[in-house]
Every structure is written in C-alpha cells, then in structure tokens.
Amino acid sequence: MSDQAVTTITTDKVNLLDFDRQGLRDFFAQLGEKPYRAEQVMKWIYHRLEDNFENMTDVGKALRAKLEASCYVGPPKTLFDKGAADGTHKWLLGMDGGNAIEAVYIPEPTRGTLCVSSQVGCGLNCQFCSTATQGFNRNLSTAEVIGQMWVAAKYLGNVTHQNRRITNVVMMGMGEPLLNFDNVVKAMSLMRDDLGFGLASKRVTLSTAGLVPMIDKLSETIDVSLAVSLHAANDELRTELVPLNKRYPIAELMASCQRWLDRKPRTSITFEYTLMKGVNDQPEHARQLIKLMRRMPTCKVNLIPFNPFPGTRFERSDAETIRAFQTQLLNANVLTMLRRTRGDDIDAACGQLKGQVLDRTRRQAEFRKRLDEGASHAA
Ligand code: SAH
C-alpha cells in the first residue's frame, strides 16, 4: 500500500489529540453525547496516557464503539530515540511523507523540562541555528505538538497530578511557535488544562524570535510564560543574527514586551542571549544589554553558550568570557542565569535539533552547497 493510501484511511477518522477541551466537547456533542463524556475520555488520554478506547473501562460499550468508528488517539510515531549520558533524552518523531521533528527531555534535580517543536523546519533563517539550515516544510498540527508531550510522558511514566516527570514545557524546539499560532495555543491549553497535563502558567513557556503582533495576540489569548530570543541589544547586529529584526526592530519588540508586562503585572519575561565568540560577547554588548534591561527590572536574561553544528561560521564564547559577561550583568543588577549545555553528546542541545525536513524553500540546498564548497576548499 502506498503512503498516500495509508494517509487517506487515517484521515477519514478524527484525531482526538487535535482538540482542546472545548473542541472535544463540541465533537462529542456532534456524536450526540454529553459534554462530561468528553472530559472522561480526556482524562484517559492525558492522565492515563491511554490510546485504546477498549481500555477506557468507565466509558460505556456503545460509546466506545462510536468512538472506534469515528476517531482515534494518534500520537506521532517514534522513529528513533536516544538517551544522553546526563539523562537528557531525545525523540525523533515521524510526521507525514518523510518529515520528522525532534523533542528533548532535560531532567534536573528539581524539575524535568520538555523542549517541544512547533514546525517542520523554520523559515526565519536565524544565522546561528541549525534548524534554519534545513529550510521550512510546514506547521505542525495541534496533535503533532501535544503528541510530542504525550509520547515523552508515556515513555517517562509521567502521571499528571501525581508523579510528574515533565514539570515544565518550553516551546524551544524546531520552528517559530508564533507563526503556528492557533495550533500551538490549542496544544498549550492542553498542557495547562487540569484534564490535560495540568501545568501552571509559569511552567509552560513560549519562546519567540520576536514576532511583535503575535506577542500581543498571545497575551490576550492564553496564560503562559514568554521568552524572547534577543541575542543582541543593537539593531545592526540583531538584524544580522535574527533577520526578523529588520521587520520588528528592538524598540518595537521591547514595546510589545512592555505591553505584555502591563497586561500581566506579576509576570516576568526571559530574554535569551546565545553567546558567540567575538560576535556578541564583548563588554560593550553587555553594556547595551544592561541599558535595555534597565527598563524591565522584573525580567531576566538567560545566557546560552552557543552550540556548534556542522557548517556553522560561529563558535562558542570562552568560559572566561561567558563568566565575565554574566558578572557584568549581575553587577548591574540584571537577573542573569547561565544555561548549562545539556545533551550535546546526542545533538540535543539548543539549536542542534534537526529532524528531517523536506524543504519547500531552497535553503537546505544552498546550505549543502556552501558546506560542500567549504569541504573542497579545505581538502
Ligand atoms: N523560534 C523560537 C524557538 C526556537 S529556538 C525562538 O527563536 O525563540 C530556541 C532557543 O535556542 C532560541 O533562543 C534560539 O535562539 C536558541 N538557539 C538557536 N540556535 C542555537 C545554537 N546553535 N546554540 C545555542 N542556542 C541556540
């Protein structure tokens, strides 16, 4: 049977992972069922991680048969998974037609963080990110976003409200989550929902390269935490590193962050800053960052040592430079954390996620060509 035929058969039925609580209630109403039945099934799916209707023992036989005929619980397929020496775990999850994305679990003494992807590839072309070299294929569906958490939770033996292995989720995998707004918001509402994974708003974080209008929209739509990938505090450098800055320069980005804080007075925003040797790690860069952060005293800076990947022109800053940069910020009373690099022995660190992208842009081909040229120069 061809792939095409398989897809046709499965799409006849509805994937319940595509619905948030309201969507599920509406779907059950269409089936002629009471809304509380939807909630009962939701608990089976997200609390007990059950994907087989037959095992949902408190759901009547007639309803189980109805569900069997009309829908399914369809998490993405694990093509490959691997653990790192430090306990980090990475999943390569198969999507349609040969695409694949990655999700990563990072255990720490007091928490376990799952890093989730939002798109197959990414169109933003941030110069220091390996996902960018792969180009872009498509947005993930809600089921494909929440399904990453479902697969990881099942593997880790996560029990919602009891034995939480995943205490935090960050939308920091492949893709720009705000360019897949509706599906990402629905998936995050399942992460937050008590009948879903039941995580507090502080523990679900969306990270964006700075899509200003969508930051505003997000603040009006759902209660989650915000991280902004800054990487430079002057427009010239930031535009070079994050081309989206040309469209939404720093002043506009910071204004939208200020509006976020005005709407959510007791929250903070994390500004991510990837440190690249000789590029954005000098004392003058720290000074520019301090100046920017002065207007946001409740916010914090998360320094990320650059993670290299084949073909990149950037290097990680020296440990000493990183320490000096952090000290300069701390001395100016900017709350600054240094993110430890985790899982880099399995290419699971920030910016190393690649998956498999059937590129619809020409970016992957261009990058490969550059790589080949580089290799032949070196030979
Ligand atoms: N598009 C979103 C989410 C994906 S990137 C965003 O830009 O925020 C998640 C984080 O990893 C971002 O802060 C990104 O800048 C950082 N990152 C990307 N490539 C990296 C690399 N090679 N080394 C370290 N951090 C990287």
UniProtKB/TrEMBL annotation:
Keyword annotations: 4Fe-4S, Cytoplasm, Disulfide bond, Iron, Iron-sulfur, Metal-binding, Methyltransferase, rRNA processing, S-adenosyl-L-methionine, Transferase, tRNA processing
Domain named Radical SAM core: residues: 108-345
Annotated [4Fe-4S] cluster binding sites: C122, C126, C129
Catalysed reactions, as listed in the record: adenosine(37) in tRNA + 2 reduced [2Fe-2S]-[ferredoxin] + 2 S-adenosyl-L-methionine = 2-methyladenosine(37) in tRNA + 5'-deoxyadenosine + L-methionine + 2 oxidized [2Fe-2S]-[ferredoxin] + S-adenosyl-L-homocysteine; adenosine(2503) in 23S rRNA + 2 reduced [2Fe-2S]-[ferredoxin] + 2 S-adenosyl-L-methionine = 2-methyladenosine(2503) in 23S rRNA + 5'-deoxyadenosine + L-methionine + 2 oxidized [2Fe-2S]-[ferredoxin] + S-adenosyl-L-homocysteine
Record-level GO BP terms: rRNA base methylation; tRNA methylation
Source species, domain of life: Bacteria
Name under which the protein is recorded: Dual-specificity RNA methyltransferase RlmN
Cofactor binding comment, as recorded: Binds 1 [4Fe-4S] cluster. The cluster is coordinated with 3 cysteines and an exchangeable S-adenosyl-L-methionine.
Molecular function via GO: 4 iron, 4 sulfur cluster binding; metal ion binding; rRNA (adenine(2503)-C2-)-methyltransferase activity; rRNA binding; tRNA (adenine(37)-C2)-methyltransferase activity; tRNA binding
One GO CC term, this protein: cytoplasm
